[in-house]
Amino acid sequence: MSKTISKDRQSGKVNKLKIEFQKSQDLQTKLHKTDGDPFEILYFDSLINLQYLDQYILPKLGKDNGDSVKDKLLSLFQAEDVSSKSIEELADLLFEGSVLFVFDSVILSIRASEFPKRQPEESALETSIRGPKDGFVEDIKTNISLIRRRLNTPSLCLEKYTIGKRSKTKVVLMYLDDIIDPDVLAEIQKRLEKIDLDILTNIYDLEMYVRDRPYSVFPTLDYTGRPDFIVQGLNQGRFALIVDGNPTVSFAPINLLLQTKSPEDTYNNFAFVSIERIIRLLGLTVAGFLPGLWISFSAFNIEQIPYLLVATISVSRFGLPLSAPIEMFVILLLFELFNEAGVRLPRAIGQTVAVLGGLIVGDAAIRAGLTSPTMLVVAAITYISSFTLVNQSLSSTFTIIRFTVLLMSTFFGLFGVTIAFLLTLFYMATLSSFGSPYLGSVAPISFTEAVKSVLRAPRQYFKSRTEMTSPEDSTRGGGEQ
């Protein structure tokens, strides 16, 4: 009687499963009749290794050595009994690349997944000169292994989440439990558990759900395509978020100065790296405020400019149809167009369009009397400075700041630039990343942390971890300087 009930229950599950996927033609259902145990197999032919199934599993099940098919599956292939699982759980197994073997009273599952993936290669986001050439890929297991093999310690913890009612996207939280601040860990766990959405396809959507201020223009989570940089962050008390299908990994807590660092800094001479970091900070300031500052001086506060430079500007602007602020707006918009075209087009064509287009259009605009050489030089210096930024999200933020400052300088001159600078500074001071101030080491001021953030001393002089992440273990710091 119990066998009959169990048989009806399993057949009912399978029938409902078939009905749910009746419009999915990649779901294969095949009935195999044997002398002892007739069974039916279910699988998605787009998600499993068909060669493994047809040439290895099924031939072994067909051999007559006295054992039943169920015994062979359990002994030879370590099949899992999934008879008690619900229809939704059985569907998840199929999505994960499992093959279901349905018998009269039992359902067994074997993992035979084969998902398309690429081999780790150098990240397109951050070029490597002396550092490792392996970068994150779209496969979450590969990304975990790239981190795990660099941290051979039991304190490296991994928590798995499934987010998205429809997509059921795999998300992994990684951290070092003897270093990370427990309050930070509890906060990110709480935010991950609260996420409720249908589909999660990219890591940026996840960031919007877990970051402190979703509508802030400044990124309060950083990202990278290099495993060695993630390992450095974990060693400083940060956590990492890995989303299946994404070749970048996000991490936090962070601050503004961290976003100006490059993964390659660790592999270069400390004096050279210190100079490079100062140049990046200078580039950050120039990228945001130079156009507005130039307009305020050349159009409103011209008495602050040396006389010879005033004469040069006056001669270069003679006969131009546009005012200085509008001219700068037009030039910056053209640079944005060239930059967008260079990014969206195929790499070889995009670089050609961006370089030749800028040269030809710039030269033609000067010859046609539409713009002055000084304006073009200022705009070019601005965009070259923006390319020194490692984090592209931060670069996009400073594009917004650039146009805002230019607008303020158009109406209020040097006073407008000063107000825009102070408002930007005050706004950043209000931001935090999981309890860590966004202007950490600067506001609140910490001389030691400021020196460590901007300059890089020889490795043996920094043996403590950063105070910004409030690590449990503040000693034996390393990697990130």
TrEMBL record:
Cellular-component GO terms for this entry: plasma membrane
Primary localisation category: membrane
InterPro entries: Spore_Ger, UPF0353/GerABKA_families
Pfam families: GerA
UniProt keywords, alphabetically: Membrane, Transmembrane, Transmembrane helix
Topology within the bilayer: Multi-pass membrane protein
Domain of life, source organism: Bacteria
Subcellular location field: Cell membrane; Membrane
One BP term from GO: spore germination
Spans through the membrane: 278-300, 320-338, 372-391, 403-429
Family: Belongs to the GerABKA family.
The protein's name in its UniProt record: Spore germination protein
Organism whose genome encodes this protein: Rossellomorea vietnamensis
